[in-house]
Write a structure and sequence with these properties.
Elements (H helix, E strand, L loop, with lengths): L34 E2 L5 E6 L8 E2 L2 E2 L3 H19 L2 E4 L6 E6 L14 E6 L2 E7 L9 H16 L26 H11 L4 E2 L9 E2 L1
GO molecular function: metalloendopeptidase activity; zinc ion binding
Pfam family, one: Peptidase_M10
InterPro entries: MetalloPept_cat_dom_sf (IPR024079), Pept_M10_metallopeptidase (IPR001818), Pept_M10A (IPR021190), Peptidase_Metallo (IPR006026)
Length: about 210
């Protein structure tokens, strides 16, 4: 049985059922994006500057640049089996840019409970990790699980209310690396089978947080 945290706050933004205050346990499936990547698309990824540690505690290294890249590779392997997309590291011409932000982003400030945010702009995907006000939370497992979730947003998937799904808006697993569930796989297959237009230099999508 995975180790779950209890009484954790919601750490993704999604719209409640109405304008009334959200009751504990309320959840509404997010809409998926209205465009999708072509079948077999190759993502050329790069972990951009700063290339230092993910965070430091009393000067002690927590998650290094190399360790982050190892977790990314593990996540790519999981999504490749499901999606058919391809991934390769490309320092010169990336179309998937991953950043550790030590200052508030210019697009939209991080909230204290936000782990990362993802969006696409002009056919390029962006994932921004919050190293502004979550310094005490990052571990290799956390990097892995947050990145697995954010890649789902890059593909076009919204949040779901299945608590064990990777695309659930709360991060409950902090000790073990998450796996894509049957619900996630069905969600992805349904999305790519849709008649959405292909991504081709579209406008910036709405930010997705986790």
């Amino acid at each position: 049985m995975p180790a779950l945290l209890k009484n954790i706050p919601y750490i993704c933004k999604y719209k409640p059922r109405s304008s009334r205050p959200k009751r504990e346990g309320d959840c509404v499936d997010d809409k998926d994006f209205d465009r999708k990547w072509p079948a077999g698309f190759q993502f050329r990824w790069k972990l951009e500057e700063p290339q230092g540690p993910m965070s430091e505690r009393d000067g002690t290294l927590v998650v290094s640049h190399a360790e982050m890249e190892q977790e990314f590779e593990a996540v790519f392997q999981k999504w490749t089996k499901v999606s058919g997309y391809k991934f390769r590291k490309d320092e010169q011409n990336p179309n998937l840019k991953i950043t550790v932000l030590k200052n508030q982003p210019t697009v939209e400030p991080f909230e204290p409970s936000t782990y990362a945010q993802a969006y696409t702009d002009g056919g390029i995907g962006y994932i921004e990790f919050n190293n502004v006000n979550r310094l005490d939370y990052w571990t290799k497992t956390m990097v892995h699980n947050v990145f697995l979730h954010e890649m789902g947003h890059i593909f076009g998937l919204g949040h779901v209310c299945q608590e064990r799904a990777v695309m659930y808006p709360e991060l409950r697993e902090t000790l073990l690396s998450l796996e894509l569930t049957p619900w996630d796989i069905t969600h992805f297959n349904t999305f790519v089978a849709s008649n959405h237009k292909l991504i081709n230099g579209q406008r910036k999508r709405q930010l997705k947080h986790w």
